[in-house]
Give the backbone structure.
Amino acid sequence: MIRGYLTILGDERRRLYVVLAWAVAYGVAQGVSMLLLVPITRALFDGDVHTAGGWLLLLIPVVALCCVTFYLQSLSAMQMAVHTMRALHHRLGDHLVTLPLGWFTRDKTASVSQIAVKGTMFVGSAGAHLMTPIITNLAGSATVVVGLFFFDWRIGLTAAIGAMVLWGVGMRASALIADAESHNHDTAVTVNGRVLEVARHQPTLRAFGSAGADYRPLEDALEQQHSIGRSMMGRSVTGLLINGLAVQAVFTAILVVGAALAVSGDIEAAVVMAVFGLAARFTDPISELAELGSAMRMSTAEIDRITDILHTPAMPQPASPVAPTERGSIELVDVSFSYDSDPDDGDPDDGDPDDGDPDVTAGTGSPPSRVVLRDIGFSVPNGSMTALVGPSGSGKTTATRLIARFYDATAGTVRVGGVDVRDQDTATLMAQLSLVFQDVYLFDDTLRENIRIGRLDATDDDICRAAATAGVDSIVERLPGGWETRVGEGGSALSGGERQRVSIARALVKNAPIVLFDEATSALDPENEAHVAASIRELARESTVLVIAHKISTVLAADQIVVLTSDGRLADIGRHDELLARGGTYADFWRQRNAAAGWTMGVAQPAGTAG
């Protein structure tokens, strides 16, 4: 736990050292005050009031020291806990934004959510209410054991052995509870994910009759959590019972040894009586240590999860960043890419790990399990428009994400502006790119501010011009609050096509040299599709455009077409007429699109009538 706190506190770790110092001082002062009761008791039994008074005069400043150190350790612990809780979210947030997107799997996102709430409370309570009592009890008990050796080495040895036994039993009891808590945390993460899934995808669940209590995955997760909770309670009771029996056994052993020594005349009766009092006072903190240890193990597990995130390597940044040498150029040279296969990624276009669950291993040190791109290479000249086409699963979206360095390529080189993306700092790279992807996310803010994210210094006139081109002005007219309407979490107040229009307006406002565009118009109504097509044409006038093309009109308008195969290889590059003449993958793509475009809806004619 202490290592975890040092990691979380960072440059403020001196706060922890202060807390530990005062906790040890308080524990030692407590132990000394208890040990002073032995000579006081001996003097009173002997009728030596003067000697007893002298020891009492010494006890007074020690008790005063206990009061002062208790106050200071409590104050410093509370201050550290408050500071840690306040700083934890900042440290987590600052580190999370440096991690490769491949780290953010569904499970890890749910775990971060769990940590941000539960973990923060554990960190605060552990610092203020668990760590300092444990340190104090350890220091106090150790002081008493050492002091007992000065009165009688045999009683001291019994107490020392008893302390080790109680410590071992307490650790075992704590381990039982900590193991159950670890499983409980995992099930809580699963339940969180399932609850969010049910809340976000109600239309789908209701359409197929699996809403609410009928959603079996959520039921299973809740049942598992209930089962783990019962197991955790059983282990807790078992651990406390074992610890209680061990405490009584050690206390009895000290009494037996003391009584035997008194009967044999090897120790004064007064000293034995005082030792019996010390034994009771010695076993209480040890017993409390076991109870605190269980809670400490749980808190330590939570803190370890936090430190695991903080120790996750960030996306590598160049020591000496290189500025781009060309405007608006893109080049991929022998690029390959792999990621962990996950059937739940849910990418409707190409099966890539890009739609909220990128289990990527490239750049993270984990072994890849699936190859998405294989030795592809192409260039996009400045001011041109390139269409990226291919079947589902061919890696089209992955190629654009590599250009934006959301992930690092497993092999090969990705250049933007004539420079390897790994040699550019993040701010320089992203300043060259505008991103319009299929999975649009809008923040729970006003419509105006969601567009302004594209360029924070954009004026209202800039926003209005971009909105007009992207067709957002018609959305503004229908919303009750106009520009000041909040769009809800994820843009829930808007349709999918309207959210994409807002995303396009962001790209127009940014006015970057390069635009990476997932056209994704196949599911849009004619009005939204027209606005998307117009926006692509507008973007192509000012920027280099790489568009994942789905519509024939977009493909025909491209200066060059890059064709990928289903296994992530480069099939061909060229203009429409050249590729069509060469046949192959592109010709198949063209025939399929033409066949789909030829379908029409009509009214069925009765048999025997003219069609």
Notes: Residues 433-511 form a domain with the Rossmann fold fold (CATH 3.40.50.300). Strands lie at 330-339, 370-380, 385-389, 411-416, 419-420, 433-436, 514-518, 544-548, 560-564, 570-574.
